[in-house]
Write a sequence for this structure.
């Protein structure tokens, strides 16, 4: 039992992680997770008590054996050398005396073992020991029947008193018989159980998951096995990676099947609305050529779902050969994982709820309580802070440095409560983390500048109020801005520098048409960073 207890206790952390993984993957709800954790806690208490109690009982048994051996040996010596007894007579006499004494001394050891068993059994229960004892003894007739059989069997051994054992065995057997009759009568009086009529889970139908993945019937095998399934393991890794990357814990991703989808098709939903759909090819991996125009010998043309790259579905047996030729070859689970991760990054601002914002503030309050107390709700409501977090995430700005963001909000809240302006102040506080990925070796930032006339037109079209900002820019100007940036963005990721007053709205205009272009303001360039001009964007020319 001690070995079983140790192995069981060593396995408990893995069981706890399995429960958390199932909860994060949406396979179980919070109520079921609490039930499993409670059962796991009871199991830990039971085996923890067993680990300690069995050691005590084991040592007592070893001590009894040693005492018996010493008594036999010492009695033999006393009988031979002190009393002058024959060897055989001394051995027989003192062995019988030792066994008799052992039968008397073993009674305390037996009582200790029984007490230890009772304590171990009661370790994982919230009831009193008497209540548990009565429920376990009289809960079924089988234990009492076994006890009656053991007592009657003892009466059959020669040398043991037959009448007491037969009386005890008969009494316990009669009690077991009466208990069985009582249980049978209670079972007969119970109404026949009928299967409950199925009812619609209306609450489940009305619930809108923050993010969900629906798969066709041909992809259900990817989620078989619970948290150990390939897809759910990948989703768990994505959530951990994005939590470290974005700065907050994303909500669980719920995975369900949908018969309306094709067999190997999946869709991703954000707040109940579908944002992407893609179909995998059976028995194939996705191969992305190292250079445009390269074609594999055998493959079905397609488009990589996450970044829109030209790709091919190729048979799995060709994967290694293409990988050696420089192709990027990924399996279907990796395709889904990469696609899902990119979609979460793209919609991270929509997934940040009011409760998530509150958790971020609570985490900051653990280290800097005064910072949070002075800001929320004295200067800004939680909704405004949430909006600033969402604006930052919308442009893929990590919010890990919550303290710096809150400090900038505390200073700028004395001037304005406009979330747009507050976001710009927060970005300036995070300037180093914003620019670091864009700076080349040597501390140089290559960027385009926006034509001064077009930039002033955007600034003049902005209208700020106390709680909101609006852009009233003519459609012609919007087209000019999009054309100016699209020409250079087609060559690859690029950076655009504008004034602080125009930056937010320039990015809003370009978000749908040129999402790969990073838009910075002059106030977001840290000291010591040299800006190298790549040109001025005017209309459609650079």
């Amino acid at each position: 039992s001690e070995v079983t207890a140790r192995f069981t206790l060593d396995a408990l952390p893995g069981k706890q992680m399995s429960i958390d993984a199932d909860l994060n993957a949406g396979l179980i709800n919070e109520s079921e997770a609490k039930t499993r954790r409670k059962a796991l806690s009871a199991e830990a208490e039971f085996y923890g008590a067993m680990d300690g109690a069995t050691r005590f009982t084991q040592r007592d048994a070893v001590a009894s054996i040693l005492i018996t051996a010493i008594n036999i040996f010492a009695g033999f010596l006393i009988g031979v050398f002190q009393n002058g007894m024959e060897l055989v007579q001394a051995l027989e006499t003192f062995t019988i005396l030792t066994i008799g004494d052992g039968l008397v001394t073993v009674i305390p050891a037996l009582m200790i073992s029984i007490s230890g068993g009772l304590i171990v059994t009661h370790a994982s229960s919230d009831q009193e020991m008497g209540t548990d004892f009565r429920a376990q003894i009289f809960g079924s007739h089988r234990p009492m029947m076994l006890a009656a059989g053991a007592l009657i069997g003892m009466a059959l051994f020669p040398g043991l008193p037959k009448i007491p054992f037969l009386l005890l065995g008969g009494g316990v057997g009669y009690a077991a018989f009466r208990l069985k009759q009582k249980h049978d009568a209670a079972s007969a009086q119970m109404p026949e159980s009928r299967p409950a009529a199925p009812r619609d889970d209306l609450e489940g139908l009305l619930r809108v998951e923050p993010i969900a993945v629906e798969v066709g019937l041909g992809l259900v095998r990817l989620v078989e096995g619970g948290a150990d399934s390939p897809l759910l393991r990948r989703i768990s890794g994505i959530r951990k990676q994005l939590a470290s990357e974005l700065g907050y814990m994303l909500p669980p991703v719920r995975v369900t099947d949908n018969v309306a989808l094709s067999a190997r098709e999946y869709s991703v939903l954000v707040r109940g609305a579908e944002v992407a759909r893609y179909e995998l090819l059976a028995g194939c991996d996705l191969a992305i050529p190292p250079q445009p125009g390269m074609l594999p010998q055998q493959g079905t043309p397609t488009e990589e779902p996450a970044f829109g790259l030209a790709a091919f579905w190729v048979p799995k047996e060709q994967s290694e050969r293409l990988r050696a030729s420089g192709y990027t070859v990924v399996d279907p689970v990796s395709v889904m994982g990469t696609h899902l991760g990119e979609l979460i990054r793209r919609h991270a601002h929509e997934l940040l709820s009011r409760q998530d914002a509150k958790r971020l503030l609570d985490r900051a309050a653990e280290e800097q309580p005064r910072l949070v107390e002075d800001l929320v709700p004295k200067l800004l409501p939680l909704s405004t802070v949430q909006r600033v977090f969402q604006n930052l995430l919308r442009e893929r700005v990590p919010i890990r440095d919550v303290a710096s963001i809150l400090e900038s909000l505390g200073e700028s809240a004395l001037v304005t409560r406009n979330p747009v302006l507050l976001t710009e102040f927060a970005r300036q506080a995070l300037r180093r983390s914003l620019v670091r990925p864009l700076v080349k070796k040597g501390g140089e930032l290559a960027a385009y500048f926006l034509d001064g006339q077009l930039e002033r037109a955007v600034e003049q079209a902005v209208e700020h109020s106390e709680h909101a900002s609006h852009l009233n820019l003519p459609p012609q100007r919007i087209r000019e801005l999009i054309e100016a940036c699209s020409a250079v963005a087609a060559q690859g990721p690029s950076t655009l520098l504008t004034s602080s007053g125009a930056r937010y709205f320039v990015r809003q205009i370009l978000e749908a048409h040129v999402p790969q272009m990073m838009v910075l303001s002059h106030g977001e360039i840290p000291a010591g960073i040299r800006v190298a001009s790549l040109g001025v964007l005017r209309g459609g020319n650079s």
About this structure: The CA atoms of residues 416 and 466 lie 7 Å apart.
